[in-house]
């Protein structure tokens, strides 16, 4: 468990789920969705994919912080004159749900396993796209722990980081560690894909890392580099089988991770 002081949060946290045997915490962009909405904005509405990848690589190497490179990406969208509402509507039209997430969510709902989105994006964008993809009713049941947005009187906007003192902007480990401190902590399944998930990676019991067809497998590269056991998955339908076996006691956490490393 991390012993360093937790970064101060500018935003409240929802209460953690007490007395649960299992909890699912998942990144949003590029994990529950097939494409990262912030990457979409940067690539299509900001300074483009080439510059974004340069900043992603600089973050992965430790040369730059995610907080600063991500802010730079979003600033490039604002600089092109795109309002926050325009970006929201573009994302609703272009972001697609992971093909297996509905079935995965239904299983979790039927077995009383909370699903919480832990994101480095902005809550209003996530909520709008999630509601568009799965409907208002199901969307309202899923908690979102993320950053926020500040919209200025002139229409320009900027990200409000949850943890501005952290190099992550939103240190996702702070959403996991409270569960670790419970008298009877649950088994934590964490799903992620990119550099924003690095702070959370080593704190999950079972870490699922999404394998991307475009080759942008940054979290996988980080886990290999750091020796963090993880399971590669292409969609939530494939991950569901392993989750079910752990929940039903057919696989231990260690056995599940061994499958992922095979």
From TrEMBL:
Organism expressing this protein natively: Rhodofomes roseus
Keywords, ordered alphabetically: Hydrolase
NCBIfam families named in the record: DKMTPPase-SF, HAD-SF-IB
Domain of life according to the entry: Eukaryota
Record-linked InterPro entries: HAD-like_hydrolase_phosphatase, HAD-like_sf, HAD_hydro_PyrdxlP_Pase-like, HAD_sf
Transmembrane segments: none
Name used for this protein in its record: HAD-like domain-containing protein
Alphabetized PANTHER family for the sequence: PHOSPHORIC MONOESTER HYDROLASE, UPF0655 PROTEIN YCR015C
Pfam families: HAD
